[in-house]
Amino acid sequence: MPLFGGFNIGRWFGFPIRIDYSWFVLIALIVWVFSTVEFPRQLPGYDGEAYLLMGVAAALFFFLSLLLHELAHSVVARSRGVHVQGITLFIFGGVAQTTTEAERPVDEFLLTVVGPLASFTLAGIFWSLGALADELGILAPAGQVSRYLGWLNFVLAVFNLVPGFPLDGGRIFRAAVWQATGDLRRATRWATSGGRAFGYVLIAAGAFLIMRGPLISGLWLAFIGWFLASAAASSYRQFVLMRAISDVPVTRVARQTSAVPAEMSARDLADLYVSGVPPALPVVRDGRLVGVVALDDVADVPPERRAGTTAAELMSDVADTPVVTPDTTLDQVIGRLQSSESERVIVAGEGRLRGILTMQEIGDWVGRANKLGLDQLRPSPGGVGSEPEAEGG
Q1: How far apart are CA 41 and CA 337, in angstroms?
Q2: Is the bond into 40 cis (omega within 30 degrees of 0)?
Q3: With a threshold of 0.85, does the pTM exceed it?
Q4: How far is CA 79 from CA 70, 72, 84, 277, in A?
């Protein structure tokens, strides 16, 4: 759930870990509140540098706690057959980004409940370390930091158990309704409605604090409420969309595509793109598919250099583009694109190239279908767009 872009910091247990730039706002806020308000109030008598060190330590360990919470989700999700694209830490905490849904209510329950359980476990560990420091009578600042981290993890677990999607409690509630009714759509609608309601409650509470004080706490609470309400609404829209396109084969959207030779100049490619061909074209050499050249690749070449630049110089290697079969559905294509760094997929089957499809083309097609009604997303028995027959060598 990236907000402002970010960067990867490595992998844990095989999962890519990404830091969204907005996360630095959260860390700065935590350090500031801890070092200037909370720790001086709870443990008076130390200098500013000591409180700053305590604040930084608490922020870093809280960051680790959030990461472990999401790792718990991710590990269990993987064990239940749900593909996890990675973990992103951002201003509102963290999220394990999945590209597929749980197949059964029990899988949804297990991969969700493990997150709050991890936070409760961390709360117990930090509280125990704080009590041990007090018992030994040493390192009072470390004991205070540890106890506060225990309290934070406890609050994190309880907050996440609120039965409103996309919080963990909302997902657990969805699993329960799904199990009871057998209707995942109804379960998702109820859970996301709970998420929106809880978000509105937080917004109202934040507005009350803004009027009565403290201002910062009120603004932060209202901001969290707005995010939860928005996330719940968008989650339901995304769920409905993904369900609607789960029966639509990729061949219904992929446009007829002819391959271009590797020696074709960028000038000739530009002429092709101006004529309205798809935004990505397959490149062949000696009858063999070797790459994909996109409109953006050609656009990056200055006009005066296009005559001397070939498709082979601009293309991305075919090995870098996922390949799907004609019976692959659109939701599966979106999952493949989200789990890779490619912007497009190659559609091929029975030794033939059927087309190249980008996320933008999927979005444009879904937008047109939505204007005509969601029923238009259902596969047609034949007709225009049902089976592109383009060959690419």
Answers
A1: 50
A2: no
A3: no
A4: 14, 11, 10, 43
Return the SS3 of 98: strand
What does the DSSP 8-state code read for residue 326? Answer: T
Q: How does pLDDT run across 320-356, given as a tens digit for each residue?
A: 888 888 888 888 888 778 767 777 888 887 667 777 8
- Mean pLDDT score, 302-321: 90
Between residues 390 and 313, the one the model is more confident about: 313
Output the six-digit token pair for 391: 């060959």
What are the start-end ranges of the H helices in 161-214? 168-181, 184-212
As given in the structure block, the two tokens for residue 378 are 């259902």
8 A C-beta contact, residue 124 and residue 151: no
pLDDT digits (tens, 9 = 90+) for 347-356: 887 667 777 8
- The CA-based dihedral angle spanning residues 68, 69, 73, 79, taken in that order and rounded to the nearest 10 degrees: 30
Residue 81: C-alpha distances to residues 100, 278, 341 (Å): 9, 35, 21
Among 304, 298, 310, which Cα is nearest to 271's? 298
CB atoms within 10 A of CB 254: 28
- Architecture of the 250-377 domain: Roll (3.10)
Strands across the sheet with 260-261, in order? 260-261, 280-285, 288-294, 316-317
Query: Rounded to whole angstroms, how far apart are CA atoms 380 and 298?
Result: 35
Distance CA 370, CA 105 (A): 29
Residues in the chain, how many?
Answer: 393
Active site residues: 70
> Which range scores top for mean pLDDT: 87-101, 164-178, 238-252, 319-333?
164-178
- Listed by start position, the domains of the chain span 6-161, 177-244, 250-377
CB 328 within 8 A of CB 340: no
Q: Which one-letter amino acid corresponds to residue 202?
A: L
Quote the tokens at residue 20: 């969204």
The secondary element (H helix, E strand) that includes residue 270 is helix 266-274
**CA 376: distance to chain centroid?**
27
**Token pair 């200098």 is at which residue?**
47
Place of tokens 């007090």: 134
